[in-house]
Each structure stands twice: as C-alpha cells, then as structure tokens.
Design goal:
- One of its GO terms (cellular component) is extracellular matrix.
- Keywords: Hydrolase, Metal-binding, Protease, Zinc.
- Pfam families: Peptidase_M10.
- The protein is 31% helix and 20% strand.
- It has six helices and seven strands, in the order H-E-H-E-H-E-E-E-E-E-H-H-H.
- The strands form two sheets. A five-stranded mixed beta sheet has the order 2-1-3-7-6, with helices on one face. A two-stranded antiparallel ribbon has the order 4-5.
- It is globular.
Length: 211
C-alpha cells in the first residue's frame, strides 16, 4: 500500500513539473537534425594564444549550442592571423578570404593583446571581445589572462563571452536579465541560456538575418 501511494505521489510531482512555466522537456537533437557550422580559428601572430586554450573554448561552446539549439561548431581552418587586431570595426573579410576556407561561416581571432577604449567620463574600459555581424568575424582579446576567469555563475568566463558573441551573429540582442549570457557585460551574468536566445538562434542563419 505504501509503495502504491509513493508512486502515485511521484506521478503527481512529474505532472506538476511538466506544466510549470519554462519547465518544458529539453529537445533531444540527433545527428540528422543538427546544423554543423565550420569555424576558422585564427591565432594572432604578434600576441599568440596557446592553441589548446581556444580549441577547448570552441569545443565547450559547441557542446552548449548543440544541446540547446541543435548547432555544432567544428574547426575547419586553424591558421595564423597577421593583421592588426587593434583596428575596429573588425572588417577583415578581404584578408580572411585568402586564409579561411569559403565554407568557414565564422571567423574567430584569438589574441593575448589587450584592447582598451576611452569612455565619455574620461576613464578607459577594457574590451574583451568584439563582433562584426556583417563579416561574421569575432575577436577575443587578452585570452591568456582570462583563461581561468569565471562569470558570476561560476562558468568559464571566455566560454560565456564566446557564446555571447556567436549569438550576435544569429541576431540575438542584449538583455537586462543577468541570468542570461546575453547580458551586456557577460562576466557579470550567470551565463545561462534563455528561451528567447534559443528561439532566435534556432530560426536564424548567420548573416542572413541582416537587412
């Protein structure tokens, strides 16, 4: 009798969970419905980053995108970047087309160089990453120094930053929700996925959403 009562109670708990807001079951993606995106990984010649660091970042971010949005990122090209990482906006398409493959939809430049810019109040602020949606180019600065840093949710900071920058390529906007990895200052977020980020990433393709 006690056993039957226990399973009845357990069934109620499961039903209640399924009808809680935001508690919908995670969709299981299979190899047949996963989008694979080739990435060109570029290591700054003047201030290089240990290759194992940025490969690990890409693998971790790919796992999250595959789980939450059905998208897998794979390193298609790994090469040296000989351009100037201090020039913004990041419009390197003319240069990168001779380095990256045509099938590489995303180009990510990693550098140990730091980047600062002046604020209106006279102070300077460090730029950790920058994305140019028109050319699908991302630059991640000061990678070596942030390799072990964490966001407020205890997640690897650089992984949260790359999740954030890649999402911009799909047209995902910033949010004031500090739970989301799309909070403007990613290091101050909890690095979590939100239903809105998932929705936009699933329906858009890189660059095609730009009008």
């Amino acid at each position: 009798m006690k056993i039957a009562r226990f399973f009845a109670y357990l069934t109620v708990l499961i039903v209640l969970f399924l009808f809680l807001p935001g508690a919908s079951p995670q969709k299981a993606y299979t190899s047949s419905n996963i989008r694979t995106i080739s990435v060109c990984l570029l290591n700054d010649k003047e201030s290089p980053v240990n290759e194992s660091i940025f490969r690990k970042i890409l693998v971790s971010v790919s796992c999250e995108y595959e789980k939450n949005a059905g998208i897998r990122f794979e390193a298609g090209t790994v090469a040296v970047f000989s351009g100037n990482t201090g020039i913004l906006p990041v419009n390197y398409e003319r240069y990168l087309k001779y380095v990256c493959r045509l099938t590489d939809e995303v180009r990510i430049i990693f550098t140990s160089e730091s980047m600062e810019f002046p604020r209106p109040d006279g102070k300077t602020e460090e730029l950790v990453a920058h994305t140019d949606e028109d050319t699908a180019v991302i630059i991640m600065y000061n990678v070596g120094n942030y390799a072990r840093a964490l966001d407020w949710g205890g997640n690897p900071f650089l992984e949260t930053v790359l999740k954030h920058e890649i999402a911009h390529l799909f047209g995902v906007d910033h949010t004031e929700d500090k739970n989301s990895f799309m909070y403007p200052q990613a290091n101050l977020s909890l690095g979590r996925w939100t239903s809105e980020a998932e929705r936009v990433i699933k329906i858009n393709k890189i660059r095609e959403w730009i009008k």
